[in-house]
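Worked example 3. Consider a protein that binds SN-glycerol-3-phosphate.
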Amino acid sequence: MKFFIDTANLDQIREAQEMGVLDGVTTNPSLMAKEGITGHENIINHYKAICEIVDGDVSAEVIATDYEGMVKEGEVLAKLNPQIVVKLPMIKDGVKACKYFSNKGIKTNMTLVFSAGQALLAAKAGATYMSPFIGRLDDISTDGLGLISEIRLIYDNYGFETQILAASVRHTMHIMDCAKIGADVMTGPLSAIDGLLKHPLTDIGLAKFLVDFKK
Ligand code: G3P
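Given these inputs, the predicted complex is written out as structure tokens:
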């Protein structure tokens, strides 16, 4: 299972990278804005900075919503670094653009996926990654993890190679449930990754070892 961090915060990306468990980064326009990164040039420079910190794939989202615009933006993004994955919205022109990039061997991530039908289309278009937003489904009392299971079944039925990238992961249990279902990747906040570490018996056991060592 790959671990991506879902942030544009360089300190958090660095911290996850230093732990040695990071496989990539996902960003989106909202996460960029949260870090105060605005304007084309600043955004491009920020992607470059992220690529310098991590070794793995870095999703960079297009802003255009028409096919020509997405292709133009995606080409620019893909040229920044081989680590860049062109992130495209799950709309008809996004599917067309996905097919265009996959034919050219450029990595893609279809985002804003909320149904198994959308996931099937993303796979048919040759997406490298496809991102169902599980937290946002949970927010509206719809089963986000249930969607991951449904997509896993469909992809396995046909051997689709598109990777299920569980997104909008909000907490540690989302990660554990995605791991049980077999999501290929999860992207979440640093706090959710850190949560995997925590166990009171580890802390108690370590404290006892240290006390005993001093005896
Ligand atoms: O990975 C998608 C993500 O950035 C959306 O997360 O928490 O805004 O639903 P959230």
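Take a moment to read the result before moving on. The longest strand covers residues 84-89. The chain has a mean pLDDT of 97.
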